[in-house]
TrEMBL record:
InterPro entries in the record: OpdG, Oxopyrrolidines_Biosynth-assoc
Protein name: Uncharacterized protein
Matching Pfam families: DUF3632
Source organism superkingdom: Eukaryota
């Protein structure tokens, strides 16, 4: 769904303030700056009772799941909103998790799907990877801490036995996991949970607990990173993945780009060290 169609639908939803939608539309059409759009949206939303389903943040996250082409603009807009002195009090991270869990619950019903209608694919098969792509961009911009979910998604995609041919559900999850290696590989490699192990308090290491293929120790390790890289190489060679309709992107191409992202991080760390890479990126 393109953003124009999303906006048209959004105007029928009473929890979205019309003036805020007008400001968002002008911004997406490159008629106003992110700063001006942010001020208008925040001011408009402040005039109505606070709703989790309002344009901030629920609406922007919904739009992101439906139109990946506006992700860069949305990240800039979210950054501008968060820089305002009167920024929303409702945390972006809470709204993000609520939206994530809502879309995730839809994927459960997708598990038994074995074939996608090429002419009318279920929108979910694109929305799930798109939401993870937006998540990866927000992580790269230091606007969101979603490392636990990112690592869980990677394990779910790369450490699970794949059917042959892979099911649409599996392909969808592989496409979602690839976004983190393509858009924020540094955040994956230098994730803040990498020092959490089984003996540590809390759940920082439990993101990798449900693996099927990984037989090493729990938690992050260079060996596990190398295992993921080998898995991407295997996915890249699965011709059956190219036959799955509905994803938009060729999953094998996403696997190739994920490998490239991993290579970039490895070279950067070898050349500059982890501290500089964490600060400067690749």
């Amino acid at each position: 769904m393109k953003y124009s169609a999303w906006l048209a639908d959004a105007r029928q939803i009473h929890s979205y303030e019309p003036v805020a939608l007008d400001a968002l539309s002008s911004y997406l059409n490159y008629e106003v700056s992110s700063h001006d759009a942010a001020k208008s949206i925040v001011a408009a939303e402040a005039r109505v009772p606070p709703l989790q389903g309002g344009l901030i943040w629920g609406g922007l996250l919904s739009l992101a799941a439906n139109d990946p082409e506006v992700h860069e603009q949305l990240v800039d807009l979210i950054k501008a909103i968060m820089s305002l002195p009167n920024k929303p009090q409702y945390p972006l991270g809470t709204a993000w998790r609520d939206t994530h869990d809502s879309i995730w619950s839809e994927t459960i019903d997708f598990k038994n799907v074995r074939k996608i209608d090429r002419h009318n694919p279920d929108p979910l098969i694109k929305r799930w990877p798109a939401y993870h792509a937006l998540t990866a961009r927000l992580m790269a911009a230091s606007l969101l801490d979603a490392h636990y979910i990112a690592l869980t998604q990677i394990v779910h995609a790369l450490e699970t036995h794949l059917a042959y041919p892979p099911t649409p559900y599996q392909a969808m999850n592989i496409a979602a996991a690839a976004q983190y290696f393509i858009l924020c590989p540094v955040e994956v490699y230098l994730n803040p949970l990498r020092t959490k192990h089984q003996d540590d308090p809390g759940y920082g290491w439990k993101w990798g607990e449900d693996m099927e293929l990984w037989k090493g120790k729990l938690g992050w390790s260079a060996e596990r990173w190398a295992f993921w890289k080998r898995r991407w190489a295997e996915v890249r060679e699965m011709e059956a993945l190219s036959e799955l309709a509905g994803l938009g992107d060729d999953v094998r191409e996403l696997a190739r780009r994920a490998e490239v992202g991993m290579d970039k991080v490895e070279r950067a760390v070898a050349k500059k060290g982890e501290t500089k890479v964490r600060r400067e990126g690749v």
